[in-house]
C-alpha cells in the first residue's frame, strides 16, 4: 500500500524501547477494558490465557518509568528508527486523516491516539500497567495508546505466509479500530453489557474484534487509490492466520467456540472484506445487530 510521505507534526508517536523510559501521564486508572489485538496464542498462550494476561495488566499498578529509554525520543527519531517504524508512522498519519474526516462529517469531536513502538521485552503503558511482548499488539483505552511490538511483524509474516506490508498495516488499522470504539463510547457500553450479562461476554468480545477488522478494511477502502496489487490477499491471509479456530488448531487444542475472543478465520476475513468493499464505517455496526 502506497502511504506516501507524512508530517510527524500530525502524529503522536513514541518508543518505550521494550519497557524503559515511557513518558507517563500520571493519575490514569487501570480499570478500563484493554483489548488484545491478535493471536498471542500462536506464541504459546491460549485464548483464555491471553485474556487473563490482559486482565492482570489492567489490575496491576503501573510502576514508575525507568529513565534513559526511548521515551525522550522525538517523533521524527522514532519514525526513522527502523523500516517498520517508518511504515507504522505513515499508517498512523493516514489513519488520523481518514478518521478525522469521518468524524468531522458527522460533527463529532475527534481525539487522536498515541502510537507506542517497541521491540521485545516488556512495555509499561501510561494507563494500563505493564505487559510482555507475548501479549501481542494491543490498545489501552485509559491512555488512548496503540502499543505494537514490531517483532510481532516478523512472527506475523511466518504465520500468514507473507511478508507483505498490508498484513502489517492491517494490524495497526485494527488497533486503531479499537481506538474508535473507545472514543465513541462503544467500548464502555460493551463492557457494561458484559458485566450485566456475563453469558454474552464472549459474543460481545468477538463482535468488538470483528468490528475492528471491519474498520481496518474501511480505512483501506477509503484510500483505495493507494492500494497495490496483492494487498487484499495479504490482508486476508493475515486475518485467516489469526482466527481463533486456526490458532487453536495450530496449538493442538480442541476448537471451542465458547473460548473464542476474536472470531474464526472465516469471520475475520469476511469482516475485513466487508469494510474494504463498502468504504463506509456504518456497515461495521452489523456485528452488534
Task: Explain what you see.
With 289 residues, the chain is α/β, with parallel strands linked by helices. The protein has one domain (8-288). It is 47% helix and 8% strand. The chain has a five-stranded mixed sheet with strand order 1-3-7-6-2, sandwiched between helices. Helix 5 crosses helix 7, helix 5 crosses helix 8 and helix 8 (231-241) packs antiparallel against helix 10. The radius of gyration is 17 Å and the shape is globular. The two termini are 32 Å apart. The model is unreliable at 18-70 (pLDDT under 50). This is Zinc metalloprotease.
Write a brief structural summary:
This protein has one domain (8-288). The chain has 10 helices and 7 strands. 47% of the residues lie in helices and 8% in strands.
List the helices and strands and how they pair.
Elements: E1 13-14, E2 35-36, H1 47-59, H2 75-79, H3 83-105, E3 114-118, E4 122-124, E5 130-132, E6 138-140, E7 145-149, H4 151-160, H5 165-183, H6 186-196, H7 201-222, H8 231-241, H9 244-250, H10 265-278
Parallel strand pairs: 1-3, 3-7
Antiparallel strand pairs: 2-6, 4-5, 6-7
Helix pairs in contact: 3-5, 4-8, 5-7, 5-8, 6-7, 7-10, 8-10
Amino acid at each position: 500500500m502506497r502511504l506516501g510521505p507524512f508530517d510527524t507534526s500530525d502524529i503522536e508517536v513514541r518508543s518505550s524501547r521494550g519497557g524503559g523510559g515511557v513518558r507517563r501521564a500520571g493519575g490514569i486508572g487501570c480499570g478500563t477494558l484493554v483489548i488484545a489485538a491478535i493471536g498471542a496464542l500462536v506464541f504459546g498462550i491460549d485464548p483464555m490465557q491471553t485474556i487473563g494476561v490482559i486482565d492482570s495488566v489492567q489490575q496491576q499498578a503501573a510502576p514508575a518509568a525507568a529513565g534513559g529509554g526511548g521515551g525522550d525520543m522525538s517523533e521524527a527519531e522514532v519514525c526513522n528508527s527502523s523500516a517498520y517504524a517508518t511504515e507504522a508512522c505513515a499508517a498512523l498519519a493516514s489513519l488520523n486523516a481518514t478518521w478525522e474526516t469521518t468524524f468531522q462529517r458527522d460533527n463529532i469531536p475527534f481525539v487522536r491516539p498515541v502510537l507506542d513502538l517497541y521491540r521485545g521485552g516488556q512495555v509499561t503503558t501510561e494507563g494500563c500497567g505493564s505487559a510482555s511482548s507475548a501479549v501481542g499488539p494491543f490498545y489501552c483505552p485509559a491512555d488512548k495508546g496503540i502499543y505494537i511490538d514490531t517483532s510481532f511483524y516478523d512472527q506475523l509474516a511466518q504465520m500468514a505466509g507473507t511478508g507483505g506490508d498490508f498484513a502489517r498495516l492491517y494490524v495497526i488499522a485494527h488497533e486503531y479500530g479499537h481506538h474508535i470504539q473507545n472514543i465513541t463510547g462503544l467500548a464502555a457500553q460493551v463492557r457494561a453489557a458484559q458485566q450485566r450479562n456475563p453469558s454474552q461476554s464472549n459474543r460481545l468480545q468477538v463482535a468488538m474484534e470483528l468490528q475492528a477488522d471491519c474498520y481496518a478494511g474501511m480505512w483501506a477502502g477509503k484510500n483505495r487509490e493507494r492500494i497495490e496489487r496483492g494487498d487484499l490477499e495479504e490482508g486476508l491471509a493475515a486475518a485467516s492466520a489469526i482466527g481463533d479456530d486456526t490458532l487453536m488448531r495450530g496449538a493442538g487444542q480442541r476448537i471451542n467456540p465458547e473460548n473464542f475472543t476474536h472470531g474464526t478465520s472465516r469471520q475475520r476475513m469476511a469482516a475485513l472484506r466487508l469494510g474494504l468493499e463498502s468504504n463506509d464505517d456504518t456497515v461495521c455496526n452489523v456485528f452488534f445487530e
